[in-house]
């Protein structure tokens, strides 16, 4: 029994309807499907470079480079000759083959149609952006030569990103109960909603952590790859017996609360079993009943007499 000479505030053990919450941290990464390599389908030379710097933002259909390729130029000539021949003598097979050859060289339908309508060919070929995004890699400069199958650019779209959150092994059991996820990155006022999509099937042996992939819509591209972010997760609301976090004290690996006795100013320490609910409350699993009064600030009860007498 502990007797306190000061006024001590108590709270009632109560039932509360709330959702269990969990906080984890992770990093923003690029979504795989929003990363595109622009690859050369032929060899050639760079005449003019429009995407001339790293991290330049481009839109789908923007010109990235103007190039010259002997192979492409010859294919254009063959198509033009096929158009002229077909005008004199119907040869749909030859015309179709010449057109398909240009497509197999990744020449745009726009340029092919231009040849058909104008009956003229351009010495140069323009390479266009297949997707809107940022130039994350640039392998050519103005005047460069390039080989067939060489990667010229990498374009990354950030309108939707992944967050790879780290979870401790003991947290995996609760994962299926968590349904609502929000993401907050330091320095950004926006709180983002997220969706869980995949728990990676391997753990980091050094940290004993699993990785949970969350998909985050990022329409204003505020979140950047490499950012450290906080993930707040919660499940369905349910009714639990709770006490404030301040009402519990951990000592020697066990939890205690101080329950009010029938004698005013005297409090008895009791062993309890808890699990976290959120940043304000613990769920009481064992040791307390609804309606009992406990000291609101258990740390206040750690006086020297109690410790000397090994009451708890």
Topology overview:
Layout: E1 2-3, E2 10-12, E3 14-30, E4 35-39, E5 44-49, E6 57-58, E7 63-68, H1 70-88, H2 92-104, H3 109-118, E8 125-128, E9 133-138, E10 145-146, E11 151-156, E12 160-168, E13 178-185, E14 192-204, E15 209-217, E16 228-244, E17 249-251, E18 254-260, E19 266-276, E20 281-286, E21 293-295, H4 304-308
Antiparallel strand pairs: 1-19, 2-21, 3-12, 3-16, 4-11, 5-7, 5-10, 6-9, 7-8, 9-11, 12-15, 13-14, 13-16, 14-15, 16-20, 17-18, 18-19, 19-20
Helix pairs in contact: 1-2
Domain CusB-like three alpha-helical bundle: 73-121
GO molecular function: transition metal ion binding
InterPro entries: 3HB_CusB (IPR058791), Beta-barrel_RND_2 (IPR058792), BSH_CusB (IPR058790), MFP_Cation_Efflux (IPR051909)
Derived from helix and strand composition plus strand pairing, the structural class reads alpha+beta
Quick check: average pLDDT?
Answer: 90
The structural domain count equals 3
Q: Tell me the β content.
A: over 45%
CA-to-CA gap between the ends? 10 Å
Q: Count of DSSP E strands? A: 21
Give me the number of helical elements: 4
Describe this structure in words.
With 312 residues, the chain is an alpha+beta fold. The protein folds into 3 domains: 2-18 and 239-308, Beta Barrel (conserved putative lor/sdh protein from methanococcus maripaludis s2 fold), CATH 2.40.420.20; 21-33 and 158-237, Efflux pump adaptor protein, beta barrel domain (Elongation Factor Tu (Ef-tu), domain 3, Beta Barrel); 41-149, no CATH class. The chain has helices spanning 70-88, 92-104, 109-118, 304-308, and strands at residues 2-3, 10-12, 14-30, 35-39, 44-49, 57-58, 63-68, 125-128, 133-138, 145-146, 151-156, 160-168, 178-185, 192-204, 209-217, 228-244, 249-251, 254-260, 266-276, 281-286, 293-295. A hairpin with a 4-residue loop joins strand 19 (266-276) and strand 20. The longest helix is centred in the N-terminal third of the chain and has 19 residues, at 70-88. It is rod-shaped. One of its GO terms (biological process) is copper ion export. It comes from Sulfurovum lithotrophicum. InterPro entries: 3HB_CusB, Beta-barrel_RND_2, BSH_CusB, MFP_Cation_Efflux. One of its GO terms (molecular function) is transition metal ion binding.
């Amino acid at each position: 029994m502990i007797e306190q000479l000061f006024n001590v505030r108590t709270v009632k053990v109560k039932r509360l309807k709330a959702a269990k919450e969990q906080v984890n941290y992770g990093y923003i990464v690029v979504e795989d499907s929003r990363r595109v390599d622009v690859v050369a389908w032929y060899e050639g030379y760079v005449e003019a470079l429009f995407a001339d710097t790293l991290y330049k933002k481009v839109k789908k259909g923007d010109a990235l480079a103007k190039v010259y390729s002997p192979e492409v130029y010859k294919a254009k000539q063959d198509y033009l000759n096929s158009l002229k021949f077909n005008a004199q003598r119907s040869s749909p097979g030859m015309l179709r083959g010449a057109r398909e050859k240009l497509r197999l060289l990744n020449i745009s339908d726009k340029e092919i149609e231009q040849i058909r309508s104008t009956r003229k060919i351009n010495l140069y070929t323009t390479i266009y952006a297949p997707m809107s995004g940022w130039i994350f890699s640039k392998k050519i400069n103005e005047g460069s030569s390039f080989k067939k199958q060489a990667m010229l650019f990498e374009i990354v779209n950030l309108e939707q990103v992944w967050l790879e959150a780290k979870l401790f092994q003991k947290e995996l059991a609760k994962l299926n109960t968590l349904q609502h996820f929000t993401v907050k990155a330091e320095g950004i006022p926006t709180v983002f909603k997220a969706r869980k999509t995949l728990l990676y099937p391997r753990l980091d042996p050094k940290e004993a952590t699993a990785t949970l992939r969350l998909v985050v819509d990022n329409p204003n591209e505020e979140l950047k790859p490499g950012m450290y972010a906080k993930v707040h997760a919660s499940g369905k609301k349910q009714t639990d017996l709770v006490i404030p976090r301040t009402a519990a004290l951990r000592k020697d690996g066990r939890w205690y609360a101080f329950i009010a006795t029938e004698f005013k100013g005297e409090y008895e320490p009791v062993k309890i079993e808890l699990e976290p609910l959120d940043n304000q409350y613990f769920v009481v699993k064992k040791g307390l009943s609804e309606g009992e009064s406990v000291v609101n600030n258990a740390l206040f009860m750690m006086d020297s007499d109690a410790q000397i007498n090994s009451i708890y």
